[in-house]
Design goal:
Length: 535
C-alpha cells in the first residue's frame, strides 16, 4: 500500500542523480556501442577525412573526425539531422555524451564536417558494403535497381524551364506595356493641368510609375538573359537556389530536387550501390548495375528494373559486361496500332534468311547501306517489294496512304533486344519481376517512411551525395546490426581492427560457429550450462 497520490521523481538537490562514471551512462547492450566499435575500426585518414592524419601542431586542435562521424551516425540513425539539433543533443543526450566523451562541438563545426567530407562519407558507405559482402550478408547474384525522388533545398518556384521563362517574359511585357500606358496617361493629365494653370508642375505619380517600369525592364532583361543561357547551353532547366536541383516527375509526383538511384541486393535488402542524379531513371541501368557488380565482385549479375529503365543501349552495355538485365520492354506510343495499322510486332524476323516476314507472308529484304537514325542508332533498312505491295489485300492496314512499300529499321545490335525479349517471356521472368518491388522498395520505404527522410538539407551535387551516403550508410548499418545482433557486430568490428577484410570473413564464420554451438548447448534440455549456479 502507498500513502502517496502520484509517483514522485528524485529531489533536484540530491548529489548523484547520474552514475559517477560516463561509462555507466549506457548499458552493455546499448546499440550506441555498435557506432563506437564501427567508427573505431575505420582508417579515417585512408578514407580521406579532413584532419584525420593531422600531427601535433600549434594552435587550438580541431575535433577528431571520428567523433564528428560518430555524432552524425548517431543523429541520422535517430532522425536528428540538422547541425543545430545535433549540437543540442550533444549537450543533453546521455548516449551522445557517452559516445563523444562529453565533447560539445558547435553547430558550425558539425555542419562544416558534412560539407567538407562528402567524398569520405561516400567512401565509408562503400566500405561498409564491402564489409557486409565479406561477412556474407549480400548474396551477390540478384539485385534490383530503382530511383526515388527526394526534395532538394529549393522550391519549385526557384526552378525555371524554357517555357516558364518565355511565359514570364510575356507576362512582364504585358505589365510593362500597361505601366507605359499609365505613364503616358499621367503625362497627358499633368500637361493638361499645366495648360489650365491648375497644376504645380511637380505632382502626380509619374515618378513612381517610372521606377516601376525600370524595375520591370530589369527583371525582363534578367529573364531574357536566363532564357538565352538555357538555349545556348545543354541545360534544360535553371535552378536559382540549388544549382543542381531540377523539377523531376514520376507518376503523379513532381519535386524540385534529386533522383536517388539505388541498387539493392536480394539477400538482406542491403543497398550495395547508389548515386544521386538530377534526371529521370532512363539511361542509368548499366551504370548502376556495373557499379553494383564491381562492389560485389560478381562474375555475372541478374538485375531487375522497371520499364522506366528500358533502353536498348543499356541492354547492350549490360550484356557486354556480363549483366543479365530484366526490364519490361517499352510499349512505345502504339501510334500505328491506334490507327489500325500493323506495327513492328506484326512482322517476324527470320535470322536464316536475314529478312522480315510481313503479315501477308512476304519477305522484307535488307538494303545494302546502313543508316543512322535520329537518336544516333545505326540501323539497317528492310524493304518490301513495291510490286507485291501494290496487289496486297492488306495494303490499307500496312502502308501509309502515300507509301508505296513498307520499311522497317533494324538496329545493328537487334539480336540483344531479341534475346532480352525471349528472356522476359521465360518462366523465370514473371517470378523475378514480382520480386523486384519487394527488394528495391524496402530501403526507400524504410528511409522515407520510417526515418522520414524525404528531402535533403544541403545544396549542390557534392554535398547532397555526401548526405545521401549518410542516409544509405545508416540504413545498411541498422539492418546489419539487426541481423547480426550487437555482440556479433562488435566482434566483427574488433576483427577488422586486427585483420584485413578478407581474413575477417573467416573470423566471423568462426564466431558464428562458436555462438551457434553455445546457443545449441543452452537450448538442449540436459545442458550443463543451464544448470550452472548463478552468482
Ligand atoms: S502491303 Fe506489302 S508489306 Fe504490307 S502486308 Fe502487304 S505485302 Fe506485306
Amino acid at each position: 500500500m502507498t500513502n502517496r497520490a502520484f509517483k514522485t521523481g528524485e529531489s533536484r538537490d540530491q548529489a548523484n542523480l547520474l552514475p559517477p562514471r560516463i561509462e555507466d551512462y549506457v548499458g552493455p547492450d546499448n546499440p550506441v556501442r555498435a557506432i563506437e566499435s564501427f567508427v573505431c575500426a575505420l582508417d579515417l585518414a585512408k578514407l580521406g577525412f579532413r584532419h584525420a592524419d593531422r600531427g601535433m601542431e600549434v594552435g587550438q586542435p580541431p575535433y577528431d573526425p571520428a567523433d564528428l562521424l560518430k555524432l552524425y551516425l548517431y543523429g541520422y540513425i535517430n532522425q536528428v539531422r540538422s547541425s543545430r539539433r545535433l549540437e543540442r543533443e550533444a549537450c543533453r543526450n546521455l548516449e551522445l555524451i557517452w559516445l563523444l566523451k562529453n565533447l560539445k562541438p558547435g553547430y558550425r563545426t558539425i555542419a562544416n564536417f558534412r560539407k567538407e567530407n562528402w567524398k569520405a562519407l561516400k567512401a565509408v558507405n562503400r566500405g561498409f558494403v564491402l564489409l557486409a559482402r565479406e561477412i556474407g550478408l549480400v548474396g551477390g547474384t540478384l539485385v534490383a535497381v530503382d530511383g526515388a525522388l527526394f526534395h532538394g533545398d529549393a522550391s519549385k518556384a526557384s526552378i525555371f524551364t524554357r517555357r516558364r521563362l518565355a511565359e514570364q517574359i510575356a507576362t512582364l511585357d504585358k505589365e510593362i506595356e500597361a505601366y507605359g500606358k499609365s505613364l503616358d496617361a499621367n503625362d497627358a493629365t499633368e500637361a493638361g493641368q499645366r495648360t489650365d494653370g491648375q497644376g504645380d508642375g511637380g505632382g502626380g505619380h509619374g515618378g513612381d510609375l517610372g521606377a516601376k517600369v525600370t524595375e520591370l525592364m530589369a527583371r525582363r532583361s534578367r529573364a531574357q538573359a536566363d532564357l538565352e543561357g538555357l538555349e545556348s547551353g545543354d541545360k534544360r532547366q535553371l535552378s536559382l537556389t540549388d544549382p543542381d536541383a531540377r523539377l523531376l516527375s514520376k507518376g503523379d509526383q513532381t519535386v524540385a530536387g534529386y533522383n536517388v538511384q539505388s541498387v539493392v541486393d536480394d539477400k538482406h535488402k542491403l543497398i550495395v550501390a547508389s548515386e544521386v542524379v538530377n534526371s529521370s531513371d532512363a539511361g542509368h541501368l548499366h551504370a548502376m548495375a556495373k557499379a553494383a557488380k564491381e562492389v560485389l565482385e560478381a562474375e555475372t549479375l541478374q538485375v531487375l528494373a522497371d520499364a522506366g529503365y528500358y533502353s536498348s543501349a543499356d541492354l547492350k552495355a549490360c550484356e557486354d559486361d556480363g549483366i543479365v538485365a530484366y526490364v519490361p520492354p517499352s510499349e512505345g506510343n502504339g501510334m500505328l496500332e491506334k490507327q489500325g495499322r500493323f506495327s513492328l510486332r506484326d512482322f517476324s524476323y527470320d535470322a536464316t534468311a536475314d529478312a522480315y516476314r510481313c503479315p501477308a507472308g512476304e519477305l522484307l529484304r535488307p538494303t545494302k547501306k546502313p543508316f543512322t537514325n535520329t537518336s544516333g542508332r545505326v540501323e539497317i533498312r528492310y524493304l518490301s517489294r513495291k510490286a507485291i505491295c501494290d496487289r496486297c489485300p492488306l495494303r490499307a492496314r500496312c502502308l501509309a496512304p502515300k507509301a508505296v512499300q513498307r520499311s522497317i529499321g533494324r538496329w545493328e545490335h537487334e539480336d540483344v533486344i531479341e534475346r532480352h525479349r525471349a528472356r522476359m517471356q521465360s518462366a523465370d521472368a514473371g517470378d523475378l519481376m514480382r520480386r523486384r518491388s519487394g527488394i528495391v522498395e524496402h530501403p526507400f520505404g524504410t528511409i522515407k517512411c520510417r526515418a522520414g527522410y524525404r528531402h535533403f538539407l544541403v545544396r549542390g551535387f557534392n554535398k547532397v551525395r555526401g548526405e545521401w551516403s549518410l542516409m544509405a550508410l545508416c540504413y545498411n548499418f541498422t539492418r546489419v546490426l539487426n541481423i547480426l545482433g550487437l555482440e556479433r557486430f562488435i566482434a566483427c568490428m574488433a576483427a577488422t581492427l586486427a585483420f584485413p577484410l578478407r581474413a575477417l570473413a573467416a573470423v566471423v564464420c568462426c564466431i558464428q560457429l562458436v555462438l551457434d554451438a553455445f546457443w545449441t548447448e543452452i537450448a538442449s534440455p540436459g545442458s550443463r550450462l543451464c544448470t550452472l549456479p548463478v552468482g
